């Protein structure tokens, strides 16, 4: 049974052209003119793009005394409804600290639930010999080539610099890419205590206690530690100019540093925390917090210039009752917002429609760039024969107002509620299956999604030469002109 997507304009990260896309089973087999297949999917007046990849989600994650309410089933169905055909979720070690047990746990939660494909990033939340040893199996056997480090959440998930350096070196050795949540957890904690002591207990205290400076400091520190370890680095949820500047500077010096802004930081600003309605503001509490317009402009510029490569969501969705755990103390509001379903439409509306991004740059930022960074390109993130048929018929003629009443996410609100978007997926295909058809009452297909294994990178040689350089005493040349007379 073949399918042909007919009459659309194919958009890749490089170019646009009129063509039909022929799919057999799970794969794209041909792209060209006047193709025919057993089943025709209409793409007239629409774009045909690679399925979106959201590299940053927290589904059913135990966090801050509760568990994120979005499930693997609802989250992956919401993803499909928004044009996203793969997501990468953060796998967090439990009380026993074992990475491999954490993966088993995440597999158990996700396996029969997922409607589209997933993968995991492994979190490093401490350091010992067992973690060092398990990392090898995580990469070589479990197909996970990325490790996340929290520089904030002191006393819970945060790692110290020596732990981070050890883990970065291990990543370099194994051909894995380290990720960081860049916020200085020591300063955040001090600021939280200061504001609470002064009687600032509402959601505005969240914004005050996590200023851009703490993110800039941590981003710079992580970049220098990665350089010393001889490894590339990926900085998640870049929200401000200070962190973006650190990334620009590093890239200019030839360091391989990637930056991921979130759709929330691009489109929502810090005034949201000063809303008089506590619940409204608490729903928007996430870390890092939303910033002002100048920071937003910096992020948009970075996407256009290529100094920032990927737009994600950090989808960590807590319902209203969970958010109320922080009444009277902003540090107890579970951190996180949703966006999995809205990421593509919001980026199109606020990016492409406004002329900030080209359609090709939109495809790069939502799919192709992250597929390359994660080492799964062109199986994912590309429209070429042989690639997985993760394809979206992207319709720029459907506009809709975002509302919790129509969303597929099971959260009881939406941080983008009331905003108008000007495009939607007409069809979303995941490895050749239609998993979403706009206006046709599509239902979740739990269990059809697969776990995608990602091979390690061939980066170890750079790490070894860097390490040799740092551990070999330099020869200090004496400058003959600088020797004081009489010596
Ligand atoms: N930030 C959030 O807002 N939620 C989950 C984890 C994180 O770093
Ligand atoms: Zn410290
Ligand atoms: Zn984070
Ligand atoms: Zn996160």
Brief digest:
The protein is an alpha/beta fold and 487 residues long.
The CATH architecture can be named as Alpha-Beta Barrel
State the domain count.
1
Q: Could you tell me the strand content as a percent range? A: 15-25%
Q: Ions, cofactors, ligands: which are bound?
A: dihydropyrimidine-2,4(1H,3H)-dione, zinc ion
Secondary structure: helix percent: 25-40%
E-strand count: 21
CATH fold field value: TIM Barrel
Shape, principal axes of CA atoms: globular
The largest beta-sheet arranges its strands as 8-11-12-13-14-15-16
Largest sheet: 7 strands, parallel
CATH superfamily: Metal-dependent hydrolases
Report the C-alpha radius of gyration, rounded: 23 Å
| Distance separating the two termini | 88 Å
Average predicted confidence as pLDDT: 96
Number of helices: 15
CATH class category = Alpha Beta
- Parts with pLDDT < 50 across at least 5 consecutive residues: none
Structural class: alpha/beta
Secondary-structure blueprint:
Blueprint: E1 2-6, E2 9-11, E3 16-18, E4 20-24, E5 27-32, E6 39-42, E7 47-50, E8 52-57, E9 62-63, E10 66-67, H1 72-81, E11 84-91, H2 99-110, E12 117-124, H3 129-140, E13 146-150, H4 161-174, E14 177-181, H5 185-197, H6 204-208, H7 212-229, E15 233-235, H8 241-252, E16 257-259, H9 263-267, H10 278-283, H11 293-305, H12 320-323, H13 343-352, H14 359-373, E17 391-395, E18 400-401, E19 420-421, E20 424-430, E21 433-437, H15 460-471
Parallel strand pairs: 1-6, 2-7, 8-11, 11-12, 12-13, 13-14, 14-15, 15-16
Antiparallel strand pairs: 1-4, 2-3, 4-5, 7-17, 9-10, 17-20, 18-19, 20-21
Helix pairs in contact: 3-4, 4-7, 4-15, 7-8
The structure holds dihydropyrimidine-2,4(1H,3H)-dione and zinc ion (3 copies).
One zinc ion is lined by residues 56, 58, 90, 314, 316.
């Amino acid at each position: 049974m073949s399918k042909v997507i007919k009459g659309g304009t194919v958009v890749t990260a490089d170019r646009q052209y009129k063509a039909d896309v022929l799919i057999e089973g799970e794969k794209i087999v041909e792209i060209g003119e006047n193709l025919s297949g057993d089943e025709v999917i209409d793409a007239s007046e629409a774009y045909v793009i690679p399925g979106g990849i959201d590299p940053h989600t927290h589904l059913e994650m135990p966090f801050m005394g509760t568990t994120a309410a979005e499930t693997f089933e609802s989250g992956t169905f919401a993803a499909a409804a928004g044009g996203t055909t793969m997501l990468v979720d953060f796998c967090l070690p439990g009380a026993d600290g074992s990475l491999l047990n954490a993966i088993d746990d995440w597999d158990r939660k996700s396996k029969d639930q997922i409607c589209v494909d997933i993968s995991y990033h492994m979190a490093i939340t401490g350091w010992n010999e067992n973690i060092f040893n398990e990392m090898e199996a995580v990469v070589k056997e479990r197909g996970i080539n990325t490790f996340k480090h929290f520089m904030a959440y002191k006393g819970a998930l945060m790692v110290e610099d020596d732990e981070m350096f050890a883990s970065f070196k291990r990543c370099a050795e194994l051909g894995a890419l380290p990720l960081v949540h860049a916020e200085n957890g020591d300063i955040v904690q001090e600021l939280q205590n200061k504001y609470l002591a002064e009687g600032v207990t509402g959601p505005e205290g969240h914004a005050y206690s996590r200023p851009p400076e703490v993110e800039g400091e941590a981003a710079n520190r992580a970049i220098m530690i990665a350089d010393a370890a001889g490894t590339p680095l990926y900085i998640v949820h870049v929200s401000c100019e200070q962190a973006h500047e650190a990334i620009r500077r590093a890239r200019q010096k030839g360091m391989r540093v990637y930056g991921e802004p979130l759709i929330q930081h691009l489109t929502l600003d810090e005034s949201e925390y000063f809303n008089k309605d506590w619940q409204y503001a608490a729903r928007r509490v996430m870390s890092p917090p939303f910033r002002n317009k100048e920071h937003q402009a910096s992020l948009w510029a970075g996407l256009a210039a290529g100094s920032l490569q990927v737009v994600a969501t950090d989808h960590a969705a807590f319902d209203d009752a969970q958010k109320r755990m922080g009444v009277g103390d902003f540090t107890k509001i579970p951190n996180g917002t949703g966006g999995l379903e809205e990421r593509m439409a919001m980026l199109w509306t606020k990016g492409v429609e406004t002329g900030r991004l080209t359609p090709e740059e939109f495809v790069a930022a939502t799919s192709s760039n992250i597929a390359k960074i994660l080492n799964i390109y062109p199986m994912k993130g590309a429209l070429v024969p042989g690639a997985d048929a993760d394809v979206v018929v992207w319709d720029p003629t459907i506009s809709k107002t975002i509302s919790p009443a129509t969303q597929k996410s099971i959260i009881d609100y939406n941080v983008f509620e009331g905003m108008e978007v000007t495009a939607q997926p007409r069809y979303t295909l995941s490895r050749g299956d239609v998993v979403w058809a706009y206006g046709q009452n599509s239902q979740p297909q739990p269990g059809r999604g697969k776990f995608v294994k990602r091979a390690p990178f061939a980066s170890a040689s750079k790490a070894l030469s860097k390490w040799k350089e740092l551990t070999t005493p330099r020869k200090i040349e004496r400058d003959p002109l600088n020797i004081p007379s009489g010596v």
